[in-house]
Write a structure and sequence with these properties.
It contains three helices and three strands; from the N terminus they run E-H-E-H-E-H. It is an alpha+beta fold and 95 residues long. The longest helix is centred in the middle third of the chain and has 15 residues. The chain is flat and about 45 Å long.
C-alpha cells in the first residue's frame, strides 16, 4: 500500500484570514519569531500497491481538478510519502 501527499496553498495574492489570525495569536502565546503565516490544505491519498510515476501523475491531475480551486489556490506539492520521508532522513544524515 502506498500513500501520496498533496499540499495546496492559497495563491500569494489571495488574502489568508486564517493565516492572519494565527500570526496574530502566536506572539500572545510566546512565539515571537514568526512574522507571517499562510494556511493551506494537506491531502493523503492511499493506493493499493506502490506509488508509481503514473499514480503521481494521476494525483497531480486530481489535485488540480478536484482537490484545489485553481482560481485561488496553487498545488505546491505532490509526492510519495515514503520516498519523501526517506529523502528527508537521508538529507538530515539520519539514514
Amino acid at each position: 500500500m502506498g500513500r501520496v501527499v498533496v499540499e495546496v496553498m492559497p495563491k500569494p495574492e489571495i488574502l489568508d484570514p486564517q493565516g492572519k489570525a494565527v500570526v496574530g495569536a502566536l506572539p500572545r502565546l510566546g512565539f515571537t519569531h514568526f512574522t507571517s503565516v499562510r494556511q493551506g490544505k494537506r491531502f493523503e491519498l492511499e493506493v493499493d500497491g506502490p506509488v508509481t510515476p503514473e499514480i503521481l501523475a494521476a494525483a497531480q491531475e486530481a489535485a488540480v481538478k478536484v482537490l484545489s480551486n485553481p482560481v485561488i489556490e496553487d498545488v505546491v506539492r505532490v509526492a510519495d510519502i515514503e520516498a519523501d520521508a526517506a529523502a528527508t532522513i537521508t538529507s538530515e544524515g539520519l539514514a
